Amino acid sequence: MGIHETVAGWLDSGRYAEFGDRWDDKRFHEFILERLTPTTHLLDLGAGAGIVPEMNFLDHAARVCGVDPDPRVVDNPHIHEGRVGVGEKIPYDDESFDLVICDNVFEHLENPEEVFREARRVLRPGGLFVGKTPNFWHYVAIGASLTPHSFHRRFNAGRGRDEEDTFPTCYRANTRKDLLALAGRTDMRLLSCSMIEGRPEYLRRWWPAYLLGAAYERMVNSTRFFEPFRVVLIAELQKPTDSA
Fold this sequence. Notes:
This protein is an alpha/beta fold. The chain is built from 7 helices and 7 strands.
């Protein structure tokens, strides 16, 4: 066994024993389940082809729909109905849903205010708009913003993701400040904006980087003071209950 396998195995089975592949999607899955009831009508905005199993809520909601510019959305196995469309013009009527979710979508939005307005439009009064996205002030997002999209495609291909499922990033809705401003401009309330740091996924391929990532994770989880530098941001916004 080489040094990489030794170090990675030690960290994986020790400090990160509770973390597995897609640990962030699993956390998001639990976050969404807490907000679902058997009568919930849910829209997965950016549902894509259904490559993330944690975004399957068919057994927990009355109706699950998905929207994505990728035509594969119509065959997404995790939704009852898929429609081709974009967040700037969601192909559903006003007040169609109780909950709109976005998994790793905010970072790709060129016009987040338009998307937030559309999410608000299709939500019923009191409905929730929930998104998981990279926090811009984490080294992963900062590094991604400084490198070309071609690098992202190659890097993610090395992690087992098809290049066609790696999309350009903008990072215009990826900080607490951004989200507060967007909530204010779209007449929604930012209920929560939590930051989470876990196993340093992007650094696990090289043992020195993995050790550095583990040290960073320990630091940012040591105190709330460093919370703004954790990797995953989960935001929850609400449409006013008295909305006309």
